[in-house]
């Protein structure tokens, strides 16, 4: 495993975990086990806003899935590891039905993100040679037809639409050589020409997950059935002694199903007796206090309105409490919230997690009720959560709350909190399916001998490579099978891993200093007045500049303390206030140990949040640095020009 490699303490030998159940080796096996142990219980549920959930049983899902797969075979598709099927849809039962229809006949699923953009969708269709794509809405079918009409995706010849549509789409498709079917037509075709399942082997491809990427075109990570099963098994192994799922538990699907983290959590639930997966439409209300079925919650964001703040370390404990309660408006209430949190934090440090303490009854019950009152288990990953936010959520919700770390290239996770360790500020220990080592990054002064370096992962959960891209594959996977993540990690004394930096985004300034902008951004985000920061530097410039987005929730109060008043927009245009913001950033930078060349020399204030919609964040809320640089090029040029005057 290498000089600095570490494995999970849950393993009894050096052999890594490939599967939890001997009869479960593929994603197809996982679902079949669910059918068996559920006794045809409820499998998928969905509801519209303010409507009751409607459930589909395991047997019905299995039956419809086999019909979909049979229809594809009847139309000439092959049960093959190189037979790719596109799914261009938001989360809904049909997504899972199509997925398992593909698995039943050894075909490969290629999910398409809603937010990838037209160019990326066209790129994926061509890269994966997708002749057929399932769409949830007619608008997406129209987008695909437009690309065919322009000659951009000549390989695409079949579109299946889940929702109702007009005959105009069928006629439009005929004119450019594309057949358009409804989901019902496909299922009926399969039912009329039913085939016996042809299951995959563990080493066969299951999913090609195109990572959104922060640079260039998306890369198609090739994920095998063995990758999925080993990663899911490791999750179950980690939690087996402290969390016992039952048929009454419900999994809430929130992240896009195209995201491997979401897929892994759902697969893991099927590995055990956690038998229901709750799917809901994009416009359904997630956090409705009247819903009481929530007992297993996948967490990407606690509340959509707090999404950016949580992921950028901007929610302090009291601020989050105020947001949820909406009524902590007196000194006494603030004191009680703070006191109650400290009491429960003390229990956490002792490994105690509960929701029936005195403080739960008098302080935290409302927060627990806002999630339905029955949450037993939560997990967060895909983007960092600050220690204060994670600690608060653990105290307030009183449920087991795990944090993991990983990336699509290791299927989903490679490290996870250990049961009983509810400390924050790290991403847990290696999972039982992989080993982790840190390797030197000398240009950033991170040395493995000191317990620091680039995080590298090896095990059965590590992907096969990028689709038709040997050059990028060689960059990610070395000759010994180690995945180089590009993240900088540090081993803590208790054996857990802390992510401290990012290797891939470092650059060199004019005088030769190496700079890691994401580390600097995370420091500046501690400024009370700021919501988002983009730090920029160039090899021909001797210093850094930044684009900052003030926090609409806190700017006015912060400015008032400095003697400024006005609306959010007025304050953002105030040059004197900008100086105060820069001074605050530099102060916090010094307190956090930033070197002088790591401090920004000037800033431009921007009023619109970086978002998925404006193309500045990826679908997993990571900064798209090339797009940010291009978007703010004029402001960046002006900052450098003014500095030279």
UniProtKB/TrEMBL annotation:
* Family annotation (Gene3D superfamilies): N-terminal domain of ligase-like
- What reactions does this protein catalyze? (5Z,8Z,11Z,14Z)-eicosatetraenoate + ATP + CoA = (5Z,8Z,11Z,14Z)-eicosatetraenoyl-CoA + AMP + diphosphate; a long-chain fatty acid + ATP + CoA = a long-chain fatty acyl-CoA + AMP + diphosphate; hexadecanoate + ATP + CoA = hexadecanoyl-CoA + AMP + diphosphate; 5-hydroxy-(6E,8Z,11Z,14Z)-eicosatetraenoate + ATP + CoA = 5-hydroxy-(6E,8Z,11Z,14Z)-eicosatetraenoyl-CoA + AMP + diphosphate
Query: Annotated Gene Ontology MF terms?
Result: arachidonate-CoA ligase activity; ATP binding
**Keyword Zinc-finger (UniProt):** no
Question: A single Pfam family, by name?
Answer: AMP-binding
**Keyword hit for Isomerase:** no
Keywords, alphabetical: ATP-binding, Fatty acid metabolism, Ligase, Lipid metabolism, Nucleotide-binding
Q: Where is the AMP-dependent synthetase/ligase domain?
A: 51-467
GO cellular component: a single term: endoplasmic reticulum
Q: Which domain of life is it from?
A: Eukaryota
| Enzyme Commission designation | 6.2.1.3
Q: Which family does it belong to?
A: Belongs to the ATP-dependent AMP-binding enzyme family.
What role does this protein play? Answer: Catalyzes the conversion of long-chain fatty acids to their active form acyl-CoAs for both synthesis of cellular lipids, and degradation via beta-oxidation.
Name under which the protein is recorded: Long-chain-fatty-acid--CoA ligase
């Amino acid at each position: 495993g290498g000089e600095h490699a570490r494995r999970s303490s849950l393993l009894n030998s050096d052999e890594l975990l490939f599967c939890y159940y001997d009869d479960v080796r593929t994603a197809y096996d996982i679902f079949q086990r669910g059918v068996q142990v559920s006794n045809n219980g409820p499998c998928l549920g969905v509801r519209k806003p303010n409507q009751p959930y409607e459930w589909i049983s395991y047997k019905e899902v299995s039956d419809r899935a086999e019909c979909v797969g049979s229809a594809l075979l009847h139309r000439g598709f092959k049960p093959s590891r190189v037979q790719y099927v596109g799914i261009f849809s938001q989360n809904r039962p049909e997504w899972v039905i199509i997925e398992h229809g593909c698995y039943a006949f050894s075909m490969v699923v290629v999910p398409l993100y809603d937010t990838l953009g037209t160019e990326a969708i066209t790129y994926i269709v061509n890269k994966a040679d997708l002749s057929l794509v399932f769409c949830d809405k007619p608008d997406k079918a129209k987008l695909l037809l437009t690309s065919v009409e322009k000659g951009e995706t000549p390989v695409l010849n079949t579109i299946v639409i889940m929702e109702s549509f007009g005959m105009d789409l069928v006629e439009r498709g005929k004119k450019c050589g594309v057949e358009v079917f409804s989901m019902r037509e496909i299922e009926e075709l399969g039912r009329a020409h039913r085939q016996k399942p042809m299951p995959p082997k563990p080493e066969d491809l299951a999913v090609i997950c195109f990572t959104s990427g922060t640079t260039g075109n998306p890369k198609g990570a090739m994920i095998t059935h063995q990758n999925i099963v080993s990663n899911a098994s490791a999750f179950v192994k980690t939690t087996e002694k402290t969390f016992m799922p039952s048929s009454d538990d419900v999994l809430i699907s929130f992240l896009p199903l195209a995201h491997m983290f979401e897929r892994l959590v759902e697969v893991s639930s099927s590995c055990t007796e956690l038998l229901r997966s709750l799917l809901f439409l994009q416009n359904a209300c997630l956090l409705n206090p009247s819903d009481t079925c929530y007992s297993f919650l996948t967490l990407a964001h606690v509340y959509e309105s707090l999404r950016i703040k949580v992921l950028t370390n901007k929610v302090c404990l009291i601020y989050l409490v105020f947001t949820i309660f909406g009524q902590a408006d007196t000194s006494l209430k603030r004191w009680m919230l703070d006191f109650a949190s400290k009491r429960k934090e003390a229990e956490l440090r002792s490994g105690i997690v509960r929701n029936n303490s005195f403080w739960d009854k008098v302080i935290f019950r409302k927060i627990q009720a806002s999630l339905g009152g029955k949450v037993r288990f939560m997990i967060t990953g895909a983007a960092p959560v600050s220690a204060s936010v994670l600690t608060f959520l653990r105290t307030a919700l009183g449920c087991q709350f795990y944090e993991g770390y990983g990336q699509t290239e290791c299927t989903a996770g490679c490290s996870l909190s250990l049961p009983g360790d509810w400390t924050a500020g790290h991403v847990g220990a290696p999972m039982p399916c992989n080993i982790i080592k840190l390797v030197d990054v000398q240009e950033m002064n991170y040395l493995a001998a000191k317990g620091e370096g680039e995080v590298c992962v090896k095990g059965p959960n590590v992907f096969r490579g990028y689709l038709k891209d040997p050059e990028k594959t060689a960059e990610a996977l070395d000759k010994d099978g180690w995945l180089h993540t590009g993240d900088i990690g540090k081993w803590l004394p208790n054996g857990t891993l802390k992510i401290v930096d990012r290797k891939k985004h470092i650059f060199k300034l004019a005088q030769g200093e190496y700079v890691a902008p994401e580390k600097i951004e995370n420091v500046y985000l501690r400024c009370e007045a700021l919501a988002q920061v983009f730090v920029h530097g160039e090899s021909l410039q001797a210093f850094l500049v930044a684009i900052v987005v003030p926090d609409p929730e806190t700017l006015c109060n912060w400015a008032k303390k400095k003697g400024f008043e006005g609306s959010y927009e007025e304050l953002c245009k105030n040059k004197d206030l900008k100086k105060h913001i820069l001074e605050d950033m530099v102060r916090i930078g010094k307190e956090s140990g930033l070197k002088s060349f790591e401090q920004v020399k000037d800033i431009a204030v921007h009023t619109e949040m970086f978002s998925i919609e404006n193309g500045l964040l990826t679908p997993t809320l990571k900064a798209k640095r090339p797009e940010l640089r291009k978007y703010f090029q004029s402001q960046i040029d002006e900052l450098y020009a003014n500095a030279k005057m």
